[in-house]
Amino acid sequence: MELTALLCGSLGLFLLAADPHGGRSTPTTAGWVLALLGVAGGATVAALLGCRGTPGRRAAGYAVSAAILAALEAALIKSTAHELSVSGLLALLDDWQVYALVVSGTASGLLVQAALHAGPLTVSQPLLVVVNPIVSIGLSIWLFGEHLHGSPATTALTVCALAGLVVGVVALTRTGPHALDIRTAQI
């Protein structure tokens, strides 16, 4: 229970303290290219790490990969919604971001299922919950030019909240069941 409170409180504090704001509604082409390369690289490395190893390692790799792609989905949805509001539905169907959203959404969904199947929920769920908003904030800063509050107190609070997230995730993955003993499982 304490770990759950630590994770939820740290995540809420992180999002509140970071509070991205400002920026532009349309990312640059160069921004998209670099973001897509970074996301594809990070998600691929994490998924490859999830292909082998212990169930916990496999669940972690797939969960991190899924969370990275889910963060990309959020950026694509933001950009697609803007395009829809400005240009309408027909113009939206000519936009590459709609199709990238379908591909990333499908891949993310499959990776979430792989993470949940590969290992303990105590590994995959915290990573899915924590990695997604952190990568989303990074993408919002990179693509949309949003800014974080820059005061020293807010920066310190953001760093402390991030540290609480890391501690909570590590502690949670060590406390839950890591394997199902079929001999003692009740159906």
Provide the descriptors you would attach to this structure in a database record.
187 residues, mainly alpha, 7 helices, 79% helix, disordered C terminus
Can you characterise this structure?
This protein is mainly α. The chain has one domain. The chain has helices spanning 2-18, 29-49, 55-87, 89-93, 96-118, 121-144, 152-175. It is globular, with a radius of gyration of 18 Å.
In short:
This protein is an all-alpha fold and 187 residues long. It has 7 helices and no strands.
User: Percent helix among the residues?
Assistant: over 70%
Average pLDDT reading: 87
Distance between the termini: 26 Å
Class by helix and strand content?
mainly alpha
Shape: globular
Got a strand count? 0
**Would you list the SSEs in sequence order as H and E?**
HHHHHHH
Largest sheet: none
Q: How large is the share of residues in beta strands?
A: under 5%
Low-confidence stretches: 181-187
- What gyration radius follows from the Cα positions, in whole Å? 18 Å
Helix tally equals: 7
Tally of discrete structural domains:
1
